[in-house]
Amino acid sequence: MNLPAYIFELPTILEINLVMTLIFFTLALLLISLILYLRVHKNIQNRRKEKLDILLIDFINNYLFNEDFNKSTEIEVFKTKHLKTPLDNQIATHQILVFAENLKGESSAVIKEIFHGFGLYQILISDLKKKAWYKQAKALYVSYQLDLEIPIPLVDSLINAKNNDLRQQAFLYFLHRSTDKPLEFLDKVKTPLTLWQQIHIENGLKSFEGETPDFSRWLYHEITTVVMFCMKMVAEYNQYQHIPILLQFLNHENHEIRQQAIISLRKMEVPKMMSILIENFPEESIQIKQEILITIGEIGTEEHLKSVAPFIQQEESILKVEYLKMVRYFNPNTFKKHKGDFENIIHDKYV
């Protein structure tokens, strides 16, 4: 930087301040210029999107309902004239998804025809082969929303992807596309299911029109979360024939599986579980003890509560709260008499 000679005659501290001021001023000017550029660029994109949306809506309506519309010619003209950039293709895909959501039957098939005619299917397959997970996830989402058939090996390779959202979209593709085996992809799962993935799979099953899968197929899966999810589904879909397996899981070495077995059996109201729970209570963790107390309140008896009372410690506040709820439920008079005095209730009633 060439500075006037008189600047070098200033005290050192003033020289430093002046130079720093010039640097910060330049950076500020560059930042303002960048913000203005991004704003103008975004406004141009928004105007482009609004214009293309209108053109797409008009084109799709003509394609669907205008019998005099020359489909093969017009679709090539539109593609060449208006779909020139990746952004244009994204806008077209979005608009097609909007139409697909509101159209069924023959019209839905025509929407897929437009998608192919615009060359968007080739772009979708290309995105699936890329390394960017968000492009792969979007491609899978579009595929099952439009009921598109894509090479299974491409989807199989994403079942155990590192990114949770990408794995979820792979699961949903198989679930939505399946006609008889919606959960067959679980055989290939080698990564724990997240809570959100389980929720989305469960919601997807609710809209599945085929026969409900037999969830016992995965009760011995190597991944704990898969086992837990299927245990939930056994209870959700009342597959009572699998109760013996869940009863065995009350003594499973895995803490989470034991806990989920209690929850599922409780939902199915299986009284046979009570003797096992009472026997296991002293050695269980606080979390499972709490589940056992809840179970006693829902399908157990006061005798069951008496059996576990000596194994609840004064310092276990969570269990104390749950226990006192049960005492109030089974014997309101005792609860009122001691007004929540934990030690007195145990001593007077169960010792």
Automatic annotation (TrEMBL):
Domain of life: Bacteria
Biological classification of the source: Bacteria, Pseudomonadati, Bacteroidota, Flavobacteriia, Flavobacteriales
Source organism of this protein record: Arenibacter antarcticus
Matching InterPro entries: ARM-like (IPR011989), ARM-type_fold (IPR016024)
Gene3D superfamilies with a match to the protein in the record: Leucine-rich Repeat Variant
Entries under SUPFAM superfamilies matching the protein: ARM repeat
Parts of the chain that traverse the membrane: 16-38
Protein's recorded name: HEAT repeat domain-containing protein
Keywords annotated in UniProt: Membrane, Transmembrane, Transmembrane helix
